[in-house]
Design a protein that fits this description.
The chain is of the alpha+beta class and 209 residues long. It has 2 domains: 106 residues, no CATH class; 89 residues, no CATH class. The chain has a 5-stranded antiparallel β-sheet with strand order 1-2-3-5-4. Helix 1 runs parallel beside helix 3. The protein is elongated.
């Protein structure tokens, strides 16, 4: 094996690992940053094609190696494909951690808004018609979530599972229409199975599968 070939066996897998490990978590972070945008997440879609190519390349090269004499090119392609796929799994997990950390922070930032809605309801005997009714007596302005991709709170006074009001945040990402919900009674158990509904503080992150 020549020095150039050895360099390829080192450099190529590193590049295949770094691309998803850097890009996917960075996109998730940019989306939920204060000045982020949901549009950033659409850049994750192009990763579908190289992932399919990597799966095909990995198994096809394994077949070639099994029926033919080992060739450096086949070994290199198989190693690069495997490295990319393993790195992709870690990148997706890391990206999800970045995303959920942002929703944890959003839940904490929501406490003043929730507290003022409760105070209004206790004083008047009913929840406010909208968060704007809290301004300026309770709040100087209607707050935002602090996440650029999902900045606005939805609010409803339609009774849901015994709750006189609820807050919601669209947590959509690409073709997934997830929701981030707050019920005053925090009774989220009826929303679905545990993998689908994840508690985030007093909120619930509901995946739309």
């Amino acid at each position: 094996m020549t020095k150039s070939t050895r360099n390829w066996f080192i450099d190529a897998p590193i590049v295949c690992a770094l691309v998803p490990l850097i890009c996917l978590p960075a996109m998730e972070w940019l989306a939920v940053a204060p000045y982020g945008s949901e549009g950033v997440l659409w850049f994750e879609v192009p990763f579908v094609l190289p992932t399919l190519v990597a799966i095909y390349a990995f198994f096809s090269e394994l077949v070639r190696l099994a029926v033919r004499r080992r060739k450096p090119n086949s070994i290199l392609v198989a190693v690069c494909a495997a490295t990319y796929l393993v790195a992709l799994l870690f990148a997706v997990s890391l990206g999800n951690s970045v995303r959920m950390s942002a929703f944890h922070r959003a839940a904490e930032r929501s406490k003043p808004l929730i507290g003022t809605i409760r105070a209004f309801e206790e004083k008047h005997g009913h929840p406010p018609e909208s968060p704007h009714a809290l301004v300026p007596e309770y709040l100087p302005s209607v707050p935002t979530t602090g996440m650029g991709a999902n900045p606005d709170y939805g609010y409803s006074t339609n009774e849901v599972r015994g709750n006189s009001w609820m807050l919601s945040v669209s947590a959509s990402r690409g073709l997934s229409f997830d929701m981030f919900l707050y019920f005053p009674r925090t009774n989220y158990s009826d929303l679905g199975s545990s993998p689908k509904v994840k508690r985030v503080g007093d909120w619930a992150y509901v995946r739309e599968d």
